[in-house]
Give the backbone structure.
Amino acid sequence: MTQYQHVTKDTSVYRDGTIKLHGPEGFEGMRKAGQLAASILDEMALRVEPGVTTEELDRVVREMTLDGGAVPATLGYRGYTHSCCISINHVVCHGIPSDKRLKDGDIVNIDVTPLLDGWHGDSSRMYLVGDVPLKAKRLVDVTYECLMLGIEQVRPGVRLGDIGAAIQKHAESQRYGVVRDFCGHGLGRLFHDAPEVVHAARAGTGPELKAGMFMTIEPMINLGRPHVKVLNDGWTAVTRDKSLSAQFEHSIGITDDGAEIFTQSAKGLDRPPYN
């Protein structure tokens, strides 16, 4: 049975399986953290180009996060030593920044999570590097559509599975694979919390959505089959068939009549092309 917990600023929160329900104070904290995340990803639109290293992009993310009064939630998380994840082409998620240079035709996901005043702003976007093949652009477009279709389902009274069902239907209608090994999640004062937000599901199943819930929706869509494997570094997840993969992520809060997107770009730079 799903358990819900109403939390305030004075409530101690734990990863205990309960779904947290927040009030106005939580929404305000998430707006600020989310807008910092969005501004960092806006800056990445100016920085991603052929020849830049993912290490350099990670440095900019770290500096912007600290300048914004936050800290990167990934830095030191389970031993991770970088301020963001950068996933290129067939990397599904958790790509590690390095001295690798981006090249013409790459597609890239950058995933950031500033922790600001105790609240996590978790978001990722895709970027097109130079002249990208049409099939890659199409994958990126459909993945963004999947994200927004998932968010459109969100309102009190519907079931968590309705989100995944909408995403799965759209992706598979294009003959793409929906990754099952990774999912969205609850968040707020905790980086990862209940519930798990799967992106392939049966409508009408799962916990009931209630006002005050915070979560990420972050579909990972593969050009080929949905299967992935994690490399020996323990972080980098890649497609087993080496097909391209794309992902977008927003952090949202459930309101009385829908969803508030905390990480939406104030500049309208939520999907490429950004110029």
Remarks:
- The first helix runs from residue 24 to 47.
- Residues 40 and 61 are 6 Å apart (CA to CA).
- The chain has a mean pLDDT of 98.
